[in-house]
């Protein structure tokens, strides 16, 4: 295979690429903020302005978002391997431009669903690409730290915007003020990506150890999909845990604001509860990502899934702002233990030549959890009540942690070329 000439020497490592790495951190914070414009407002918009009384109907926008983002994640990996990372990143921002307009002007719920299809595609392209670009820059070491910084920025962006839009909705109404903030974030993210972000694909192609490692001729898209989804013990364990994790997040996004509001909490407190979960999630990843580099991936993933299950049970049992505040913070902590660790685990096992596609497959399954969560939680909540739906999701989360404990290999975080040949069951 012939690659274009490299005009400047490539360097790998967080410190060696710090300016570009920090720029990508800022870009991903804006990606998260773009998603955060919906976290507090849309569940309330569904019930208050569009009169969607049934949980399953109100969650249609999360189903649409999850399916669109899952598909876009897969495409992002394939396209960025073939055409470069930066074009995919810029395309994702361009697709986000109409989203605030559609949400502000929406005369029917169908407009909201359409906006979330666009938002899901945009989030899949932008977030996946920033993940891959950071893996490219840091090389085979400190992937957990890099992913912790990336995901912390994204979810602190979600949290800050969720809280800000809750305040704006309380003072100015559900529309248009909260979505004007989202429009500003999209414009800034697009500008930074076009003008300042640099391509990183050559870092992956020439990563130290990558040329000598097995799989140097690459794998087909089908092979990468089967390995990541089913065949490799570690990759498939990570993929199922990611799906269940985002099943929880879909529940928290779509139903928890309704639960809190129907309990009589004011919009300001609903916004705080909607924000504290991604805030703890985001901030704690600054620690948990680095810890996974030292301690390994498996233990943190298992502990994180079990912590999330406990938090969900506490939310189902809660009835007041203080009890829910503690449970939502615990849910954020459990998610922080898992989120960057799962991504780093994919990077540990996948070869540099097909790592972007493996990340795309993992994120396909992970964000498919939004769609699964919308269906499971919505149908169960309609039939049996919201508290029962939360308990069922808690049980699924605990089972996922047990599966990781039984199936995932322990030492895949060690950066050796041998790890680039995934082993089957």
TrEMBL record:
Transmembrane segments: 21-38, 58-76, 88-105, 111-132, 153-173, 179-197, 300-318, 324-343, 364-381, 387-406
Top-level taxon of origin: Bacteria
Protein location: Cell membrane
InterPro entries per record: MFS (IPR011701), MFS_dom (IPR020846), MFS_trans_sf (IPR036259), MFS_Transporters (IPR050171), Sugar_transporter_CS (IPR005829)
Keywords, in A-Z order: Cell membrane, Membrane, Transmembrane, Transmembrane helix, Transport
Pfam families for the chain: MFS_1
Domain Major facilitator superfamily (MFS) profile: residue ranges: 20-412
Membrane topology term: Multi-pass membrane protein
Entry protein name: MFS transporter
Natural source organism: Brachybacterium conglomeratum
Organism placement in taxonomy: Bacteria, Bacillati, Actinomycetota, Actinomycetes, Micrococcales
